Amino acid sequence: MTFRGKWRNMLAVYRQPRLLIPIVLSSLLGGPIGMTGYVLAANNIGAGYAAAISALYPAFGVLLSSILLRERLSALRYGAFGITLIAVGVLGYCSCAEPSTAHATSSGSILLGLIAALLSVIGWGSEAVACAWATRKHSVDDEVMLHIRETVSALSYAIVIMPLCTLLPVFRVRIDSVYLLVLALVISLLGTASYLCYYRGIAKVGATRAMAGNITYAVWSMIAAALLSQTIPPLIAWACCVVIIVGTVVVSSER
């Protein structure tokens, strides 16, 4: 905020509780609540089912934005959006559909996993709509919005999530390698950059179109995984990639 010279913009938001409170709530929903829900879902019902269910968050976001923000698409674009969501869900399930990850573990709770997965859907979908509401309806700068979001998420993780996780032996991990620390830092910076692009996209074209572009992460993650692990994904995965790209182009087009 200092280098970008946007402290005044940020302080202006802090002086408006009616604007700040919804942003903070959306930050909690999209950050610690949504991500914790996804992790719990993966642990209880398997990563495959968790990925497939959580991929539905844009559908919830579209429904919410149509009600609260009056964002409308044509019937063709809604159809393309729905087909794209199905392709993302299939791709997410196929990428994790190994016996060790596709099914719930014997010690896991299916009901808890389903509730947690739905929590991630609600959290991530609400975050996008709240961002669109703040940036498009109240002219909040997207970088200020992201700063508040990351600050709230970081404090939540530091004060609540991490102390709770350290009580569980599975989370007691020590990173003694400098390489791993540097890698974690690089990944964090890439994640921050992607979120900045996502928030700017929401501010420019609205929540619906931005979410349509954001879910193409499934395509790029599959390509990156194929390059790094030197494995060829199945034909159905490539077919889903084509559907996702075409569907995103249709939804995001102006005409």
Task: Provide a short characterization of the protein structure.
The chain is mainly alpha-helical and 255 residues long. Helices cover 77% and strands 0% of the residues.
What do you see in this structure?
Helices cover 77% and strands 0% of the residues. It has eleven helices and no strands. It has helices at residues 7-14, 17-45, 47-54, 57-68, 75-95, 110-137, 142-165, 178-205, 207-214, 217-229, 235-252.
What is the number of domains?
Answer: 1
Structural class: mainly alpha
Distance between the termini: 37 Å
Q: Mean pLDDT, rounded to whole units?
A: 79
Catalogue the unreliable spans: 98-106
Number of strands: 0
Percent of residues in helices: over 70%
Instruction: List the helices and strands in order.
Output: HHHHHHHHHHH
Features:
single chain; 255 residues; mainly alpha; 11 helices; 77% helix; globular; membrane
Q: What layout of secondary structure does this protein have?
A:
Elements: H1 7-14, H2 17-45, H3 47-54, H4 57-68, H5 75-95, H6 110-137, H7 142-165, H8 178-205, H9 207-214, H10 217-229, H11 235-252
Helix pairs in contact: 2-3, 2-6, 2-7, 3-5, 4-6, 4-9, 5-11, 6-8, 6-9, 7-8, 8-9, 9-11
